[in-house]
C-alpha cells in the first residue's frame, strides 16, 4: 500500500493534489544544525537540534547560548561548547561565586572571562 510515506520521509501521496514523499534533509529542514526525521505517515519532518540550537528548524540559540554559531555561553552560564569533548552551557549557581576573589568563577569561555556587575554578599564585584 503506497498511501503513506515511510519513516524519515515527508509528504502526503493521498492529498489532492498529491504531495510526493521526499526524504527528510538535515541541511534543508534543520539548517545543518540538527537531525531531521519523521514517523511513518508524517507529512513533515521534525528536527532534533544540535547542542546550543533550538526552534522548529534549529534556527535560534538555545537558552544559555549566544553568538553567530550558538557556541558561546551567555552571561550567567558556564561551559565550553567548542571543547573536545564539548562542555554544554549550564546555568551558574549562586554558590559558585563563593570563594572567588574576582567573582568570575562562572561564565568563562575559551579562557576569556565574561564581565558584568554583580551584587554579592553586600559587595559589588565585577565578573
Helix count from the secondary structure assignment:
1
Helix percent band? under 10%
Structural class: mainly beta
Rg, Cα atoms, Å: 21 Å
Largest sheet: 2 strands, antiparallel
Features of this protein?
single chain; 127 residues; mainly beta; two-stranded antiparallel sheet; 36% strand
Report on the architecture of this protein.
The chain has a two-stranded antiparallel sheet with strand order 1-2. A two-stranded antiparallel sheet has the order 3-4. The protein has a two-stranded antiparallel ribbon with strand order 5-6. Strand 13 and strand 14 form a beta hairpin. It is elongated. The protein has one helix and 14 strands, in the order E-E-H-E-E-E-E-E-E-E-E-E-E-E-E. The protein has 127 residues and is mainly beta. The longest helix is centred in the first third of the chain and has 5 residues.
Topology:
Blueprint: E1 9-12, E2 19-23, H1 26-30, E3 34-37, E4 46-49, E5 53-54, E6 60-61, E7 65-66, E8 72-73, E9 77-80, E10 87-91, E11 108-109, E12 112-113, E13 117-120, E14 123-126
Antiparallel strand pairs: 1-2, 3-4, 5-6, 7-8, 9-10, 11-12, 13-14
Amino acid at each position: 500500500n503506497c498511501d503513506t510515506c515511510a519513516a524519515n520521509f515527508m509528504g502526503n501521496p493521498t492529498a489532492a493534489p498529491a504531495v510526493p514523499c521526499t526524504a527528510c534533509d538535515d541541511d534543508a529542514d534543520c539548517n545543518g544544525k540538527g537531525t531531521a526525521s519523521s514517523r511513518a505517515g508524517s507529512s513533515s519532518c521534525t528536527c532534533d537540534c544540535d547542542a546550543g540550537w533550538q526552534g522548529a528548524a534549529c534556527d535560534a540559540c538555545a537558552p544559555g547560548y549566544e553568538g553567530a554559531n550558538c557556541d558561546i555561553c551567555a552571561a550567567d552560564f558556564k561551559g565550553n561548547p567548542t571543547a573536545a569533548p564539548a562542555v554544554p552551557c549550564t546555568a551558574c549557581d549562586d554558590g559558585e561565586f563563593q570563594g572567588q576573589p574576582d567573582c568570575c568563577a562562572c561564565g568563562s569561555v575559551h579562557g576569556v572571562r565574561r564581565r558584568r556587575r554583580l551584587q554579592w554578599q553586600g559587595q559589588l564585584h565585577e565578573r
